[in-house]
Write a structure and sequence with these properties.
Elements (H helix, E strand, L loop, with lengths): L22 H17 L4 H7 L5 H11 L7 E2 L2 E2 L3 H14 L1 H21 L2 H12 L5 E4 L15 E5 L2 E12 L6 E8 L2 E8 L5 E2 L14 E12 L11 H35 L1 E2 L2 E2 L4 H30 L4 H26 L10 H13 L4 H13 L6
Parallel strand pairs: 3-6
Antiparallel strand pairs: 1-2, 4-5, 5-9, 6-7, 8-9, 10-11
Helix pairs in contact: 1-4, 4-5, 4-7, 5-6, 5-7, 7-8, 7-9, 7-10, 8-9, 9-10, 9-11
Family: Belongs to the acyl-CoA dehydrogenase family.
InterPro entries: Acyl-CoA_Oxase/DH_mid-dom, Acyl-CoA_Oxase/DH_mid-dom_sf, AcylCo_DH-like_C, AcylCo_DH/oxidase_C, AcylCoA_DH/ox_N, AcylCoA_DH/ox_N_sf, AcylCoA_DH/oxidase_NM_dom_sf, Glutaryl-CoA_DH_mitochondrial
Keywords: FAD, Flavoprotein, Oxidoreductase, Transit peptide
Amino acid sequence: MPAPALPPFDPRDPLGLDDLLSPEEKAVRDTVRRWAADRILPHIAEWYERGELPGIRELARELGALGALGMQLKGHGCAGASAVQYGLVCLELEAADSGVRSLVSVQGSLAMYAIHRFGSDEQRERWLPGMAKGETIGCFGLTEPDHGSDPGGMRTYAKRDGGDWVLTGRKMWITNGSVAGVAVVWARTDEGIRGFLVPAGSPGFSAPEIRHKWSLRASVTSELVLDEVRLPADAVLPGASGLRGPLSCLNHARYGIVWGALGAARASFEAALDYACAREQFGRPIGGFQLTQAKLADMALELHKGILLAHHLGRRMDAGTLRPEQVSFGKLNNVREAIGICRTARTILGANGISLEYPVMRHATNLESVLTYEGTVEMHQLVLGKALTGVDAFR
């Protein structure tokens, strides 16, 4: 019998990774890709240049209608999607821009996840349905001006005053902060670190926006200021005590980054591939030169190895077997390789690579922030080093 005909080679899916996805997963991916192509890509260069994300509340409601907000959570209006579906959504959103993916990650994987996992039934019912629809935006206040990688050193403090809590402190680099209807704020107490739900408009609470950024420019980034903010007893998240609470939220968000960073890398790789096939120098397309082909081959290798890694971690999360160290493995590798892909793509585009007419430099600068938040390179190296050796080198 003759051998069956092989499928054609697809330069944009050289390993045939689409075969790993179910029809439902492809449908989710394609829906978000079309939305991003219609709502984000025509405007993102201008938004990035202006340093703003206009219409963020409308975008949040549209993302809610897509089921993208808190999509892995179950109940209270959340979609209950799989980890792989959520990962594909993160990839497609970040292929448009990291700022849009950050909006979704902070809303779902940090703020909503914290309420869903650690909140009371009353807190879940009060906040989650509106957040799932995008009617209420949330933020997550953990990082402080002097405490990033070491959240255990936080200075924000909550003290009891009768039946109330009074919070004082500052949080820094908070995505969605200035537009959030509720902030999940972590603070030290006499009983250890606790999480609090701080509604916008609470007396003493403000969220001034951080300007003059050269990365994540199409994103709302804020400081949170808590000046003796008085909250009722039911503002505390009853299920979270100690650092385990916020760190579990960060691990959930890191998983989305494992996928999302590859969206930025894919967009940059595809821009470089198209450019190399069209741009002529010395009488031929630059894609016909050996050095350019070597760059494209190496970029494709790292991009699609990263997608395989993300897919594997997603299947493990869906099976309930994904460990935090494995998420660190993915975050460390995929963001680092994504930045390398963007930088190599820029060299193929030459001087055009720094223009906002192409997405490459925008993605490269965004990924500098992605490399840092939810755990720096060094922190994830130490997480893996401890897992490999059994020796804690953090202190």
